[in-house]
Amino acid sequence: MSKLAEKDKFLDLSDYGRPFGKAFALQLKNTSFTPIHVTLLFGISGLLAIYCILNQHYFAAGFFIVLKSIIDAADGELARIKNTPSYTGRYLDSVFDIILNFMFFMAICYVSSTSIWYTLLAFFGIQLQGTLYNYYYVILRNKSVGGDATSKIFEYKAPKALPGESQKSVDVLFNIYTIVYGIFDKIIHFLDKDAYKVKTFPNWFMTLLSVYGLGFQLLLIAVMLPFGYIEWVVPFFILFTLLLFVFIFIRKKYL
Predict the structure, then answer these.
(1) Is 29 exposed, middle or buried, given 0-12, 13-18 or 19+ CB atoms closer than 10 A?
(2) What pTM did the predictor assign?
(3) Mean pLDDT per segment of 10 residues, for the chain of length 255 residues?
């Protein structure tokens, strides 16, 4: 099952790892590997990237960051290939992402001269960026005929477990998800409460917005590290967050 109907598909700059992730998932189709196993694997890749940053092996760090993005695409693909969607996987994936994002920035702060407060501001900024992208993308997916509706526009209560997963696991992970993402969801919803009323988002708009997708954010970091721009990572993402208001203005004014 595709995430979007054919007419709603757009060039997602953050999803460059999808073809490789799909190929990897196809290799696991007839194995005992589950999407949860793949999610754990991208977590390991992220931890290896952090280890490399701390030891100033920046080319290797960039490699493992990009590899993390590729594997991150594979868990969802495997769930679709095996027809085993789950809220457990959906929430675990998101929780791993925010933990790794925080650790990436803390590692960069540790090996650079960047202030801890600016680092925390940059981390807050990338989470707002990603939340705006996900907010509009989930709205599009829910409006798209035949699209994937596993993710919800508003996460108010734990969903009913799907076949093959435990309701207790869904409840626990949902509660963790709402704790770590709740503030970002509330801010973005406050800034654009009526976005869910639109019928669709134009493909060009979603392509521009995809620079706020996690894959593209991580690609920027993966490129900046080996090219000697580690001191620019934090200030860049602080300034990059200002583009958020431009996207919201375009959405409100023209869409």
Answers:
(1) exposed
(2) 0.92
(3) 74 94 93 92 97 98 96 90 89 95 98 97 98 94 63 75 90 94 94 90 96 97 97 98 97 91
